[in-house]
């Protein structure tokens, strides 16, 4: 018996594999954590061999991260229950569409006081059209608390030891330090806040704004226009959080999950690219989405639609002119030219942060 | 006799000429403003003809904006006193180094209740090494109040009717509306705030951060690193304003003068380019500055130096790790590698906006 906390990773895509390197190295050094990390791998056969066997003998995830070696204390399993049974900390890094079924399989099979951490980009669609945050879904399905780690959109940058920042939205005070030490590395700087909803929703909304920035790029609008989209998108994010996730703190928007991820997304993310192609090719979004998006990054257009459903229900479309115009352009309700018109004419004095957060 | 306000422009460079188009068109439509706008032009001979004569006959500033026609109600003068004598609103758009002498010439020759507006990018060097804002200098020298217009770094974008935003920091309540109407056009959206110091200093500090972003570009660091520089630069700007210009409002940082100008500068400004060349060529800054900088955009390195003098005096260098490391790299005190080390290791929890602005 030991008091050390046991950590497992559920998922084996490139983000899961990248983070497994940090986690594997960190637990090996820790006095507080078990040195072995179980990793649930969706079983596949690669040239006739099981992927789990390949990982456990070569320590290379040949399917998703063939150029990187995993620490040998990360052990692959093809059974999610066996992976998670003894875990005190369950790191979820699977596509958002698999969360429901995965939680159903695990329900009642994990330690009752286990703590989950979602690394999942995306959200679930509520019956009423509202966004359901993935961490909320995990908490509801698995009956345990769930934190989030957001930031560093680009797994290969982290894998290549380029500098990146992450934000941990921690829902359990006593895990704050341990989660920080679990993920941080020399090149991946993590900051922990308890404002978990805000961390997660910021990371979702930025895809809408990045799509807007991509529309501007597609129309060959100038740098000032793009900067205006970023600025107003940031303000609408503040306002959105204030309406739908009240009690959040302004400081959270200045973490990596807020300002940094937004800026990076508006210059380098796939939603930006998708929007640019949408304008330049004139093809329908449904066609381009398949062409451009690899992996499971949530799409700006569907996010914009769900955001719009939430705004419409509260009669708030006019108070979110940027989110609204991006949705309407995606939906074919507005022509592209309305984007610039909105920047030129839409009122914005209604949502200054001084008002919202009562500075 | 008339109650209409008389407007003049002091300066004839490309920014002065660009804004003269907006001002000329706006006064012509206004019930409150005199339809004629005097413009002070530093006299030069172009192919044997006076520049003022060319402007007044062809309405083209052949020297600085040869591709654009000025409204015919903008009239060029070569005598600054004659230009400004009857003005109620004096728009200053001259290089910062000429402000002192220009104000000396004008002292006692302008209407005692005249109001100045500075469009000047840059600052003056105080005897004690502190930054003196140009609007403060004008107020001190000319004994009249002075507002500022900041934003849209790129005169040619405005001239080409691309979308841009500007922020007016207005020091006189009764001029708020009139200044807005004087500068705004269909493609140039202006927002007025009374937080003039903050507007002006944001516009200065962004050159330091853009220089930092350029260092990262020069070292071929990744998008996440640049986003981190923007994020931390933004936070240090908040903190700097809180220390040196207390009483400013958080909302101001979300105007164009804050977030938009910062982002644009970190992707497109000349300080970014200067820093990139500094890293890639290994040449001393003094050599590159002449090569790269056209016009009078204030330089990141000299700004960083003055910022550092101000911080050092208050013993605050450690609390501004990004500003400090950029200065020290410029000054040759630190090697380039310290930039990334600072991002990785420097504490930042000391300057969260929640603390600074006591949200």
Automatic annotation (TrEMBL), chains A, B:
NAD(+) binds at residues 98, 155, 270. The keyword NAD applies. Residues 7-175 form the Glycerol-3-phosphate dehydrogenase NAD-dependent N-terminal domain. GO terms for molecular function: glycerol-3-phosphate dehydrogenase (NAD+) activity; NAD binding; protein homodimerization activity. Residues 195-339 form the Glycerol-3-phosphate dehydrogenase NAD-dependent C-terminal domain. SUPFAM superfamilies: 6-phosphogluconate dehydrogenase C-terminal domain-like, NAD(P)-binding Rossmann-fold domains. One of its GO terms (cellular component) is cytosol. It catalyses: sn-glycerol 3-phosphate + NAD(+) = dihydroxyacetone phosphate + NADH + H(+). The keyword DNA repair does not apply. GO terms for biological process: carbohydrate metabolic process; glycerol-3-phosphate catabolic process; glycerophospholipid metabolic process. It holds the Pfam family NAD_Gly3P_dh_N. Substrate binds at residues 121, 270-271. It is an enzyme of class 1 (oxidoreductase). Its EC number is 1.1.1.8. Keywords: NAD, Oxidoreductase. Pathway: Lipid metabolism; Phospholipid metabolism; alpha-glycerophosphate cycle. InterPro entries: 6-PGluconate_DH-like_C_sf, 6PGD_dom2, G3P_DH_NAD-dep, G3P_DH_NAD-dep_C, G3P_DH_NAD-dep_euk, G3P_DH_NAD-dep_N, NAD(P)-bd_dom_sf. Belongs to the NAD-dependent glycerol-3-phosphate dehydrogenase family. PANTHER family: GLYCEROL-3-PHOSPHATE DEHYDROGENASE, GLYCEROL-3-PHOSPHATE DEHYDROGENASE [NAD(+)]-RELATED. Homodimer. NCBIfam families: glycerol3P_DH (TIGR03376). This is Glycerol-3-phosphate dehydrogenase [NAD(+)]. It comes from Drosophila grimshawi.
């Amino acid at each position: 018996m030991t008091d050390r906390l046991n950590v497992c990773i559920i998922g084996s895509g490139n983000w899961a594999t990248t983070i497994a390197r940090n986690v594997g190295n960190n637990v090996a050094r820790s006095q507080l954590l078990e040195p072995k990390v179980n990793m649930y791998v969706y079983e596949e056969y690669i040239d006739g061999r099981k992927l789990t066997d390949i990982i456990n003998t070569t320590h290379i995830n040949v399917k998703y991260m063939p150029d990187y070696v995993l620490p040998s204390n990360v052990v692959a399993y093809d059974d999610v229950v066996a992976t998670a049974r003894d875990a005190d900390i369950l790191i979820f890094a699977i596509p958002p569409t698999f969360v429901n079924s995965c939680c159903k399989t695990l329900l009642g099979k994990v330690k009752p006081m286990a703590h989950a951490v979602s690394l999942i980009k995306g959200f679930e669609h509520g019956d009423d059209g509202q966004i359901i945050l993935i961490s909320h879904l995990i908490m509801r399905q698995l009956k345990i608390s769930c934190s989030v780690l957001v930031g560093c959109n680009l797994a290969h940058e982290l894998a290549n030891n380029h500098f990146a920042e992450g934000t941990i939205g921690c829902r359990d005070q006593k895990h704050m330090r341990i989660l920080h030490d679990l993920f941080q590395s020399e090149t991946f700087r993590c900051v922990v806040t308890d404002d978990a909803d805000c961390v997660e929703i910021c990371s979702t909304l930025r895809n809408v704004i990045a799509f807007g920035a991509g529309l501007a790029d597609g129309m060959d609008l100038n740098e000032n226009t793009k900067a205006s989209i970023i600025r107003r998108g940031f303000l609408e994010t503040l306002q959105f959080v204030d309406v739908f996730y009240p009690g959040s703190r302004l400081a959270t928007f200045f973490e990596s999950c807020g300002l940094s991820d937004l800026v990076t997304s508006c210059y380098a993310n796939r939603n930006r690219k998708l929007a640019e192609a949408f304008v330049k090719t004139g093809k329908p979004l449904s066609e381009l989405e398949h062409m451009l998006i690899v992996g499971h990054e949530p799409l700006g257009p569907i996010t914009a639609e769900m955001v719009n459903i939430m705004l419409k229900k509260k009669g708030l479309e006019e108070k979110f002119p940027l989110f609204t115009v991006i949705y309407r352009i995606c939906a074919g309700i507005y022509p592209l030219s309305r984007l610039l018109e909105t920047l030129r004419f839409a009122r914005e004095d209604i949502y200054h942060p001084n008002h919202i957060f009562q500075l």
